[in-house]
Amino acid sequence: MRRICVVTPAVRFPVSSTLLRRLAFANIVANVAIVVTGGAVRLTASGLGCPTWPRCTDESYTTTPEMGVHGVIEFGNRLLTFAVGVVALAVVVAVLLHRPRRRGLLPLAVGVLLGIPAQAVIGGVTVLTNLNPWVVGLHFLASMVVIAAAYALWRRTGEPDGPVTPTAPGPLRTLAVITTAVSASVLVVGTWVTGSGPHAGDGGAARNGLDPEQISQIHADGVFLLIGLSVALVFAFRAVGAERAYRAALVLVAVELGQGVIGFVQYFTDLPALLVGAHMLGSCLVLLATLSVLWSTRERHPAAAPTPTLEAEPSVPAHA
Fold this sequence. Notes:
The protein is mainly alpha-helical. 66% of the residues lie in helices and 4% in strands. It is built from 8 helices and 4 strands; from the N terminus they run βααααβααααββ.
């Protein structure tokens, strides 16, 4: 009998687990940063600083002096998209070079990478449609999907590849899923509020036609529901001794309260640009904190060691 060993091909420049995890975290930071800078484009009325796409003007891919500061801001945000893409590409390369090869990381890394040009295309459509508020909202929500994928990738880099087991009872895991769904709905309605408000990104851009006061009330109702569910998770996780989930839920409530304060202050102070930008950053943080709670309701164990495969020695014919 002999043992057959499967040898993983050597990598000339292997990537450590530490470097892979740091790059995955940088992926999150970069995608959150592009949301904030994209908000700055709209809040400075620079949404049509480059009036066409993919060029900045009909004759040039870059801004011109005649376009002024608005052109610089819009073109600068377009350049930042390439920087975010470089980070995402570095993560894909790191996943490929990491040994041992991690199951499930590559689809997430590629998904984040492909999401960046997809966002760029949606951003181009916003320009070509003269900053249609529904398309602008879709652009923001697409960014949220990419951030969620980047977060999932980062969490997976810190986990083994074995089976997943729950750390909280089934009803509480279901409640965490419901909370995540409500959090997503709050983000969606938030884009409707933005589309009805004064920060259109350009003086000539249309609004979505919704009543700002009514849609803001609906958004606030969703926020109250989200906070209520999150507080319920805090007490429930504490009651069953799910410490990791309890701590994550506490962070979520703290982030939600901070975001809520910013939201109410900006509403009653006629939406100053700085607070609106902070609210956009807060939206990203609420999403990440919600996903953290969802992740904390389960844990992944190391994979079982593979059983050696044995193969019988080939029989040797007898000689007379």
